[in-house]
Amino acid sequence: MSLVIKNGTVVNADRSFSADVLCEGGRIAAVEPGLSTLGIETVIDARGQLVMPGGIDPHTHMQLPFMGTVASEDFYSGTAAALAGGTTMIIDFVIPSPGERLLDAYHKWRQWAEKSCCDYSFHVAVTWWDESVYDDMGTLVRDWGVNSFKHFMAYKGAIMADDGVLTQSFPRALELGALPTVHAENGELVDYLQKLLLKKGIVGPEGHPQSRPPKVEGEAAQRVIQIASILGVPLYLVHNSAIESVDAIAAARRQGQRVFGECLTQHLLIDESVYYDRDWGRAAAHVMSPPFRPRAHQEALWDALSGGVLQTTATDHCCFCGEQKAMGREDFAKIPNGTGGVEDRMAVLWHHGVNMGRLSPNDFVALTSSNAARIFNLYPRKGVVQPGADADLVVWDPSLRRTIRAETQHQRVDFNVFEGMEVTGGPAYTVSNGQMACADGKLLATAGAGRYVDRPAFPAYMEAQRRQNERHPMRSVARSTAASSAWRP
Ligand code: URQ
Ligand code: ZN
Ligand code: ZN
Q1: CATH number assigned to the domain with residue range 53-375, chosen from the 4 options 3.90.550.10, 3.40.50.300, 3.20.20.140, 3.40.50.1970
Q2: Which ligand is nearest to the CA of 93?
Q3: How many angstroms does the Cα of residue 60 sit away from the middle of ligand 3?
């Protein structure tokens, strides 16, 4: 299968330039002006359009069993929706139940994902600890291409990893050359506040943000950053939504700590007023964790994206339809947590980021693709338009106007948190593995066309971290002790 994209402007994270792009055998074969179309099966005229690396969404949950139900979006429909929005790879999550062997859960999720339309990979969650977890982490890194392990500091009584699990799992991840990632909310505080609010008779969706105020996230972010510093491990914090966690990450990075942060497109644009909607269903449809915040947090997130404090954007795509959300009709703590976004992430970020002058097109590529590729050791196979890379591309039409609506979306859910939003800029064509996967909004993707992508251990920053730890064992403890003794009243 050969495909050439003519007359476009190539936009990578580092620069933009005019060039044609030739794809052959699923790889990018050439990126230069004046490429011939002779004998090429598919020719795209990208005049006035941008040719970017396909989006990578590092945080999705297709068909996740969670809170007594299963997310409505499966790996086929969710990856089809991703392609429709210009995303050509997802990193989803294997989430073992406490006591379930990590390897068993991994192979279960691998089976579920076989129907994917685009490439995919998995973070594996550490939700409990014993020798078998230690062993399975090693097997997953060595034999199955896993290089990141997730830890939920929230969801007490379900999948929450307490500090004891973190202090076992983090050093093991470092030893294996894998990156620990975390959902940072204090699960004990959430549990306490949920019970307190319910006792006061607050049972509606408005109880959700009240049980998880920004400081519940900030405390966990600060704590886990300190734990990572003392243990000498790099760290990736998912779905940062609050000023408190952004400040914690900024402070850590200023001190040279390797901390990466992610932001969801939803948290950039939706505020906590949605939980006070008189329509219970609409309010409940927005229940996700961390919750949507007061507006001041959104500007801080935008600043963190354009200022490099946060490196990636994601969606945490985890969909539940109205009748599933209604499981929490009498008790907000029982509303399945999650919202969708995999189809809209790139257009929403382009419109509110690039069109509004907050981000350059190159920033946009870094935040939707290249940085995630670098952090999860997929670069330059993914995340860049250059010869040798996978032919995962999006031909972006900056003039394409669309109104986001649940009734016209490809996502398999009966709600869209961006309902009615008008965006300018979107994918004219999505190319996945060198094949046309979506053209002018028409899906051409096929179930099973997606491939599982191995992610090698020991990215460059991991090697550097290990050398730093050898040079300065317990560096951060020594550093903080030195700092505290530096000044005496
Ligand atoms: O916490 C997560 O990331 C999963 C369980 C999706 N749900 C959510 O509310 N973010
Ligand atoms: Zn989470
Ligand atoms: Zn998630």
Answers
A1: 3.20.20.140
A2: 3
A3: 6
